[in-house]
Amino acid sequence: MNAEDMILISVDDHVVEPPEMFDNHMTKKELETIAPRLMEEDGKNFWLYDGHRIANMGLNAVVGRPKEEYGMEPLRYEDMRKGVYSIDERIGDMDANGILSSMCFPTFPTFAGNLFHQAKDRKGAKRVIEAYNDWHIDEWAGAHPGRIIPLALLPIWDSELMVNEVKRVVSKGCKAISFPDNPTFHGFPSIHNAHWDKLWEVCAENDVVINCHIGTGAQPPHSSPETPIDAWIAAFPMSIANSAADWLYGEFLLKYDNLKISLTEGGVGWVPYFLERAEFTLDHHGPWTKSNFGDKRPREIFQEHFLTCFIEDESGLRNRDLVGIENILFECDYPHSDSTWPLTPENTFRQLDNVGLSDDEIDKVTHLNAIKHFNYDPIAILGRENCTVGALRERARQAGVDTREKSGGGNSAKIVDRSGRMTSGEVQKLFAGEGAAVD
Predict the structure, then answer these.
(1) Residue-wise pLDDT tens digits, 260-319
(2) Cα separation, 348 vs 368, whole angstroms
(3) Architecture of domain 3-434
(4) Which helix (H) or strand (E) holds 310?
(5) Are strands 52-54 and 8-14 parallel, antiparallel or unpaired?
(6) What is the pLDDT of residue 414?
(7) CA-CA distance, 389 to 206, in Å (whole number)?
(8) Where are the beta strands (DSSP E) in 50-116?
(9) Cα(336)–Cα(347) distance, rounded to whole angstroms?
């Protein structure tokens, strides 16, 4: 196998929502009263909702720009590559990058929808979440069958509302929800609380995957204002380890054998030691902590219930037997700054080849695991001959998709002249000053 022969399904990408997204899914009155609205002021775009201003920070949409121009400064739509917010352009960018299918997490509502969860008007927030899901399923995913894996948000403040929305989106073909990796960070009960029991049940009954994206709960602290921001970026994926431990010890997993939790964008390399530590903890501390894994071991529970994802992670791939080859899935992270677009196939195949994965193992981590766990089979829809990296790139070539870097997103006036080391303090000031959407 070579890079052009691979089939790539990414279980972690993002969409910057287009300005008109709610128009077809809310009444005229709702659009005028409760819907989020895109505004412009002082040359900046921002979403206005429930009294909050939410700007789109640069690292969320830097694809296609030189790395030297990455940063946290807010961007206008004209500063972004069109594939960031236009579904037709997104499909072209996926073709050029050899990506068959993609699951896209929200941007302005935050990855798990915390903006809506914190709204003062809960009745209105419920309607906004329904409209958001309808747009995502019907328009973003529905426009190109087989290309976008639908993902839904939930009104997590109410157990019955959650269950009803899961059932509703499942009826529309959606088998994935975005959920905070630790809801207590946002003022909601812990995952061990009975508040969530009906959610676990309905997800298990309908084979719905619970996707916990990094940053939706626990985040790595900034060590100091003077600390180079690189330190925070390097540690960010592993920040989900604490939440993974929380979920691993959830006794509800013993009740639902098929319940799946995806640790989205959390990487893989830390998992072997984490599981080793969990095994030691059970044996060494279990007698006094009264650990309850039923008749199983922590490693078994993890391999039965948890999905891990990789962008650049040879350490995790080398230890695939300790993690579970069935539990490792590929992600691209378009259009965020970690994405390697438009050279993702080359970057991915290099890792797989360096580690020595067999063709069967490559097929599992690049697409078969995603097809199985998310109950979404684009190959059945589109035909295998149209799904490989080579076939998709040929389609992009014929369509004339331009993948060349463009300084300033094609807008030279928006290039930021930055000198010196970027620190945590500077980034925190940008977030505080621009109302960035942060989970």
Answers:
(1) 999 999 999 999 999 999 999 999 999 999 999 999 999 999 999 999 999 999 999 999
(2) 16
(3) Alpha-Beta Barrel (3.20)
(4) strand 306-310
(5) unpaired
(6) 53
(7) 31
(8) 52-54, 99-105
(9) 16
